[in-house]
Structure formats: structure tokens, C-alpha cells
Amino acid sequence: MKGIVFTEFLDLVEAKFGLEMVDKIINESDLESNGAYTAVGTYSFSEMLQLLQHLSENTGISKDDLLLVYAEHFFAVLAESYPGLIETYKDPIEMLASIENHIHIEVRKIYPDAELPTFEILERTDNSLIMIYKSSRAMHYFGLGLMNKTFEHFNSSATINLEKIKEDGTEVKFTIQKN
């Protein structure tokens, strides 16, 4: 997993819960990196799981809810760092439908060894989208949060339902209906 995911996560934890919480979750985890991350480094996904688990335990907030909040933060980072990428699109459905064939291609130019989820489009209209998320990492709530922020970015809203195809969350069907 790319280091930017870790550095931004820890920045969010510090902003929301304080530096002491960052220190606490790092110390409670058994991290090969010892909690020292660079944005361009690559780190084990198990480290993110540990940090997320310990943050959940220390705050009483579910991991899924923490991933939603983190996704909102991460979207803002992406929008600020890569405004041209988002400005390419006029509509949230168009942007979400382009994840696999455009956005992930651009991400791979910056982070060639990034392990990204796949999104298979099953159905698309001007106001709806059905797609399958597949990832060895069950971070579908992170994806949901990014989708929510995409609609917010375009001053729009949607009803987004997720249905686990695989119980472990590694394959999820998203049904999106623009309001």
C-alpha cells in the first residue's frame, strides 16, 4: 500500500484526535515500519489494518465509519493535489464510471506499483451506475466515502447502496442513483 495512504491517515488522526492518539495507535501496533512513513514508500496493508483497528478500539468508532471519514479527507487531498484530474469531468456519474479506464491509469503514472482495486461497470445511465468493486483489501467503505465526496464536489447527491458479494468485503456491488 502506498505511503500517501498512511501519511494522510495519520494526519487525519492527528487533526481529529490529537498527536497523542497518533502515538498511541502506533505504539499499540506491531509495525514493520515502526510507524515511519513517506508518501512515496510502499508498506504492508496489515499495518493500515492495525492502525485502523487500534483507532477504532480507542475511539469507539467502527472501522467502517473511520474509513468513511478518512475517504472524505483523502478526496480533499486528491482534489487539491491533482485538480486537473477532477476538472476533466462535468458530472459525478461520468467521473465514477471513469475510475478504471482513466483515473487509475493516471494514478499508476504517479505510483506505478500501486495495488488498486478494480471497478467493473455493469450498467450506466446519465443518472445511475452499477459497478462491482474488487480488491484483496476490504476497504469498500473507503470507496463509498470517495463516492460520497465525488457527488458533493459536483454539488449533487445520490443514494448509494452497497451489497457485499463476498462476505469479507473483497467484492462489493455499488448501486448508485443520482438524486
TrEMBL record:
<dbReference type="InterPro" id="IPR038158">
    <property type="entry name" value="H-NOX_domain_sf"/>
</dbReference>
<dbReference type="Pfam" id="PF07700">
    <property type="entry name" value="HNOB"/>
</dbReference>
<dbReference type="GO" id="GO:0020037">
    <property type="term" value="F:heme binding"/>
</dbReference>
<dbReference type="InterPro" id="IPR011644">
    <property type="entry name" value="Heme_NO-bd"/>
</dbReference>
<dbReference type="InterPro" id="IPR024096">
    <property type="entry name" value="NO_sig/Golgi_transp_ligand-bd"/>
</dbReference>
<protein>
    <recommendedName>
        <fullName>Heme NO-binding domain-containing protein</fullName>
    </recommendedName>
</protein>
<feature type="domain" description="Heme NO-binding">
    <location>
        <begin position="2"/>
        <end position="161"/>
    </location>
</feature>
